[in-house]
Each structure stands twice: as structure tokens, then as C-alpha cells.
Amino acid sequence: MSALPTSLTLGSLRVETPVVLAPMAGITNAAYRRLCAEQGAGLYVSEMITSRGLVEGDETTQKMLVFDELETVRSVQLYGTDPVYIGKAVEILCADHGVAHVDLNFGCPVPKVTRKGGGGALPWKRGLLGEILEHAVSAAAPYDVPVTMKTRKGLDDDHLTYLDAGRIAQESGVAAIALHGRTVQQAYSGQADWDAIAALVAHVDLPVLGNGDIWEAADALRMVEQTGAAGVVVGRGCLGRPWLFRDLAAAFNGEAVATLPALGEVRTMMRRHAELLSEHMGEERGCKEFRKHVAWYLKGFPAGGELRHQLALVDSLATLDDLLDGLDPDATFPERELGTPRGRQGAPRKKVALPDGWLDDTDGRGSHLREDANETTGG
Ligand SMILES: Cc1cc2nc3c(=O)[nH]c(=O)nc-3n(C[C@H](O)[C@H](O)[C@H](O)COP(=O)(O)O)c2cc1C
């Protein structure tokens, strides 16, 4: 058993607790990052933005690049398949947006993305991966900004890429590699393979961040103990549960805390979330964005079908207040939900969508992959 890490070092960046909020498209916007940061002390990564969108000044991309005024460590996940675009995008993030950390997405399993060779498909092209990482690292170096990468085990069990990716990351000067212990083919189904995380830790000399199926703070400790990971990346476990970051910070501090808020406190958290979204996006859009979080917050609580339905249609903070009043503040936390999966799970894909002939060559240097400016589907 390895000693528990108490902080995380990514190049010049020191994170007070070895916990990272996973980039999640449509979720980890400025409001949600602030909400989570109010609870814990980790690193909070943005939704994925595309390098081409950034370089070409695409409007959707610009809108996504907002930060909360209290967000002192700006952490952005970038997607791309072209080393030159990635390099330029990193330069823009560092020079114009004061970003302190850039993460690169090599894990997205969405067919629309992998079909073009992006996300989780890209690490198959070892040469191209190296080129992209080198461009990113050298663009960030003058600003002393660490670059990390996030990936999966591989395309499928017969086409694993993560050990090579780790070696290439290390050779390219990347500050850490995060591994989601699933293949692209698995998408979000089945169980994350923490043994793969341990294998990567043994294979490389750079910090490895473990990702996949951390539902409680105790899972995070178990993961680092089992794998020797330098820290954890937490995604679905915090959906509708921003206080998980409080528990995680406490756990890495040696205190076993499991926050079990009564419905009254959950109500307060829901209001805060909707309020922050409204501050950042305006009330109408903010409330619309909030709708997708309702079912996660109320999972396992007694709320009633009609009230849930109304909450999922909320269009103003005043309506939200009225509806929240209908929830019993004294209802206790549904403990049977602890340790259970939340968010997307789904089924494995029959086949991974890839560009024609993708598997024929493992280098890919100099290839020209089509990269959309406004790709926002994420991981
Ligand atoms: C709604 C959603 C959106 C996601 N978007 C991204 C993304 O933009 N970039 C990325 O690298 N991963 C993305 N992911 C994957 C997560 O970062 C994480 O790797 C995955 O959910 C496994 O971790 P977990 O078991 O803690 O959820 C997304 C996941 C979800 C559920």
C-alpha cells in the first residue's frame, strides 16, 4: 500500500488536495465549478472547448470560455486533432485568458468525434499524439502553464493505447496523465478497470490521475491505495452532489466524513446552483441549464412525480423557489444511494466508429483530420 497523497503537483501548479473535477461537457461550466469549489479544495476543469473554435473565434467557444470571479486557478480542457491548431489554442488560453492549467481530451467516445479520429481514437496514432502534445507543451512553456492529458485504456480490449500514451506523454513533457479505466468501446458501461490505472502508474514516471467510478470519498482513497495514483478525477459521482468535494478534501486530510444532507440542505444547494447559473448566463438560460440537474439532486429523496416534473421545466428563480418550498426539508438523505452509480451508464458500443483505415497505421504524423470548430459533445 502506498502512502496517501495529500496534495497534487502539476508542473508549477500545486493543488491543495489531490482531487480534480472531471471535465464534463454541458456540466462543468463556470457556475458548477464555483459551486463545487465552494465545497472543496481541488482543481476544477472546464467543459471541453475545441482548439479550432478558439483559434477561429467561434462564438459558442467564446461563450464557454468564461470564469467565475473567484476562480483563481483557471483550468481548461481543450479538444483537437491538429498539432498546429492545438499549439495556437494553448497560446491563446495562456496569453489572453490567464489559464493556469490546460488538459487535452483524448478520451471522448462519442461516435461523431471518434469517426474523425478525435478524442479516444487519437492515441492509436502514436506519432500524431506525440506531435500534438509537443506543440501544446511548447506553447504553454513560456507561461509556465502545465499541460495534462486525459485518456482511456484504448479503442477496445484488442487495441489498447494507454501505456504507449503514458510513455509519449512523459517524453513530451506533459505534467500528468489522467486515465479513465474504460475503453472507447465500453463508453460508460461496465466497471472502470483500476488495475489498468495501477499498470500505468508502474509504467511511467509522471503523475497518473485515476478516473472512473468514484462515487464516494472512500472510493477515492481506495483507488489511490490500490493503484498508487497521484490523485483522482471525479465525474458522475458529484452530479447533484457538489458536497462530495467536501468529503473528498476531508478524506485526503485523514478525516472520514460522509455528508448526508437532509432535503432542506439539498434545496439550498439547488437554489445556489440555479442562482450561479443565472448569474453567469442570465436567468432564462440559467434556469434551463439547471433543469438537467434536478433529477440528480433529488435521486432517492421523496419528492413526488408531479413536483419533479415541474422542477424539470423550471424557467425562473421565482418559480424555482415556489417549487422548492414543496419539498420536505426534514426528509433525510437516502443512504441506500451511497456508493451507487449516477449519471450516464448505458451499454457498450458494438463497434468503435473510426475513420477508414484508421487501424492500418499507428503513427499518423502529418495526417489532416477534419476538426469541427463547434464540437461540444465531450467525453
Ligand atoms: C455528461 C458527461 C460529459 C463529459 N464530458 C467530457 C469532456 O468534455 N471531456 C472529457 O475528457 N471527459 C468527459 N466526460 C468523461 C468524464 O470526464 C469522466 O472521464 C467519466 O465520466 C468517468 O469518470 P466518472 O466515473 O467519475 O464519471 C464526460 C462525462 C459525462 C458523464
Automatic annotation (TrEMBL):
Residues 331-379 are annotated as: Disordered. The active site is at C108 (proton donor). It comes from the Bacteria. Residues 21-318 form the DUS-like FMN-binding domain. InterPro entries: Aldolase_TIM, DUS-like_FMN-bd, DUS_fam, DusB-like, tRNA-dHydroUridine_Synthase_C, tRNA_hU_synthase_CS. The keyword tRNA-binding applies. FMN binds at P23, M24, A25, Q77, K150, H180, G235, R236. Residues 362-373 have a biased composition (Basic and acidic residues). Keywords: Flavoprotein, FMN, NADP, Nucleotide-binding, Oxidoreductase, RNA-binding, tRNA processing, tRNA-binding. It is an enzyme of class 1 (oxidoreductase). Pfam families: Dus. Its EC number is 1.3.1.-. Its cofactor is FMN. It catalyses: a 5,6-dihydrouridine in tRNA + NADP(+) = a uridine in tRNA + NADPH + H(+); a 5,6-dihydrouridine in tRNA + NAD(+) = a uridine in tRNA + NADH + H(+). PROSITE patterns: UPF0034. GO terms for molecular function: flavin adenine dinucleotide binding; tRNA binding; tRNA dihydrouridine synthase activity. Transmembrane segments: none annotated. Belongs to the dus family. NCBIfam families: nifR3_yhdG. Catalyzes the synthesis of 5,6-dihydrouridine (D), a modified base found in the D-loop of most tRNAs, via the reduction of the C5-C6 double bond in target uridines. PANTHER family: TRNA-DIHYDROURIDINE(47) SYNTHASE [NAD(P)(+)]-LIKE (PTHR45846:SF1). This is tRNA-dihydrouridine synthase. The gene is dusB.
